Amino acid sequence: MEKKKVNINHEDVVIQVDNVSKSFGDLHVLRNVDLQLFNGENLVVLGRSGTGKSVLIKLISGLLKPDKGDIQVLGEIVNHLDERELRVLRQRIGFSFQNSALYDSMTVRENLEFPLVRNKRKLTRSEINKEVEEVLEGVGLAQAINQMPSELSGGQRKRIGIARTLILRPDIMLYDEPTAGLDPLTCLDINSLINQVQEQYQTSSIIITHDLSCAKMVGDRMVMLLDGKFERQGTFEEIFDTDDERVKPFYDYNFIV
Amino acid sequence: MGRKIEKLLIEFARIHRFMMSFLREAVSPPYEFKEIIRQCYEIGWKSFPLISLTGFIVGFVFTKQSRPSLEDFGATSWLPNLISIAIVRALAPLVTALIASGKVGSQIGAELSSMNVTEQIDAMEVSGTNPTKFLISTRIIATTTMIPVLCFYVAGIGLLGGYLSIATKDDLSILAFFTQVFESIAAKDVFAMVLRAVVFGFTIGFASTYVGYYSSKGTEGVGKAANAAVVSSMFLVFIEELLIVQLLSLIG
Ligand SMILES: Nc1ncnc2c1ncn2[C@@H]1O[C@H](COP(=O)(O)OP(=O)(O)OP(=O)(O)O)[C@@H](O)[C@H]1O
Ligand SMILES: [Mg+2]
């Protein structure tokens, strides 16, 4: 399934990662990494387990601080912001976690309301309800509104997690392995949801994945993280047109040859 | 050695930061009233059965065990005075704090560390909301207010246990018992009890939210955090008890 082409303006940069390094003790996860995300595009980040993909988007959302380098998001340098400024910026960034991270003591409705009532204090009760129902409708789970997260399947949890980030109408979406651990049909659903979000909410997104079908279906552009650096970038075909022994197995495994 | 001291200093700096952000979030609006009420219910109300049983048994047993030594002096009529002083000055706050360390401390430690492991705390953070306000401040406020309430209750039910223990041997009306109790307790004893209970309540809330919030990732982190919450709460409660006793004897 090919992705519908979108027009990208390469002048309009929403995320700019500049020469960023991050280590944990002796473990050098990212080394002098550069990356750009253009307005309106879906950028897929590929890479093996443990190469630092999750670390990268945690740096972008300010959950971690880089040891070196700057990260600019929507015109603000994330690593220079104080807590309050960071909180304002984060309302414009949606973060879908690898394991959904739903609040397990709250119902689906309360999960969705949580960021909304705390960030948009002027909304009335009926506006909140309307917003919650609308977003749930959008991810196709209107019927789950009163359920607890523990009663949902993995795929449903992923959608609720995405819905919870969409409720603030973010400009940027960060998806951490949206299809990991899901069956092929549910993967297809999630992939169409990601594309639907891009169109409907006009987001620019970074999608982290190992799943090449997902990459192919949602990505306008791809980069591959190898040994702490982005060594390959381009379209799907460009990335895999190589004899690099670190890259080929990805393709071979996903599309058995 | 140098490494250890450095680690300790880093820990102290982190505790200081945690304390400061709690204070800032606890006093600044918007307030999480609904969540504070919910936590008071979880922490206070749900501890009543356990605390009732323990308070009663402590009062009953303490009275029974004290009787022989007073009997030697023919002073069993002093039993109500003895137990009321013992319960109000020492037993009620300590028993409440130790039971709460075990029950409430482990609950808070496990709850927060499992939220940490499953990235729920990060999720609050990245949605532009403030996890300290919602998760930490509410729990510390709830323990600081609920432990004193529980403590008064333990004092009452402990005295009742004491009365029943006396009533099995002597012919003493409950009215006469409580008249004697109130004659022997001074206002400053009650003040000291409330002071202890507030300090212990704050300590239990603070220590268990701290270890839960900064627990290591991974499922074994949850068990460790629950355990550390209980151990550190109890340890701190005893240290504080020691300090408060010294302090009160200084100011008379
Ligand atoms: N907070 C942290 N403290 C210490 N080490 C960390 C921390 N976060 C990540 N790491 C380490 O950094 C490395 C990269 O982790 P990361 O989670 O980014 O991998 P990943 O590329 O997302 O892998 P996966 O595909 O399995 O999710 C790992 O070796 C991990 O152990
Ligand atoms: Mg990851």
UniProtKB/TrEMBL annotation, chain A:
<protein>
    <submittedName>
        <fullName>ABC transporter ATP-binding protein</fullName>
    </submittedName>
</protein>
<dbReference type="Pfam" id="PF00005">
    <property type="entry name" value="ABC_tran"/>
</dbReference>
<dbReference type="InterPro" id="IPR003439">
    <property type="entry name" value="ABC_transporter-like_ATP-bd"/>
</dbReference>
<keyword id="KW-0813">Transport</keyword>
<keyword id="KW-0547">Nucleotide-binding</keyword>
<dbReference type="InterPro" id="IPR003593">
    <property type="entry name" value="AAA+_ATPase"/>
</dbReference>
<keyword id="KW-0067">ATP-binding</keyword>
<feature type="domain" description="ABC transporter">
    <location>
        <begin position="15"/>
        <end position="252"/>
    </location>
</feature>
<dbReference type="InterPro" id="IPR027417">
    <property type="entry name" value="P-loop_NTPase"/>
</dbReference>
<dbReference type="GO" id="GO:0005524">
    <property type="term" value="F:ATP binding"/>
</dbReference>
<dbReference type="InterPro" id="IPR017871">
    <property type="entry name" value="ABC_transporter-like_CS"/>
</dbReference>
<dbReference type="GO" id="GO:0016887">
    <property type="term" value="F:ATP hydrolysis activity"/>
</dbReference>
From TrEMBL, chain B:
<feature type="transmembrane region" description="Helical">
    <location>
        <begin position="225"/>
        <end position="251"/>
    </location>
</feature>
<feature type="transmembrane region" description="Helical">
    <location>
        <begin position="190"/>
        <end position="213"/>
    </location>
</feature>
<protein>
    <submittedName>
        <fullName>ABC transporter permease</fullName>
    </submittedName>
</protein>
<dbReference type="GO" id="GO:0043190">
    <property type="term" value="C:ATP-binding cassette (ABC) transporter complex"/>
</dbReference>
<feature type="transmembrane region" description="Helical">
    <location>
        <begin position="82"/>
        <end position="100"/>
    </location>
</feature>
<keyword id="KW-0812">Transmembrane</keyword>
<keyword id="KW-1133">Transmembrane helix</keyword>
<keyword id="KW-0472">Membrane</keyword>
<feature type="transmembrane region" description="Helical">
    <location>
        <begin position="43"/>
        <end position="62"/>
    </location>
</feature>
<dbReference type="GO" id="GO:0005548">
    <property type="term" value="F:phospholipid transporter activity"/>
</dbReference>
<dbReference type="Pfam" id="PF02405">
    <property type="entry name" value="MlaE"/>
</dbReference>
<dbReference type="InterPro" id="IPR030802">
    <property type="entry name" value="Permease_MalE"/>
</dbReference>
<feature type="transmembrane region" description="Helical">
    <location>
        <begin position="140"/>
        <end position="166"/>
    </location>
</feature>
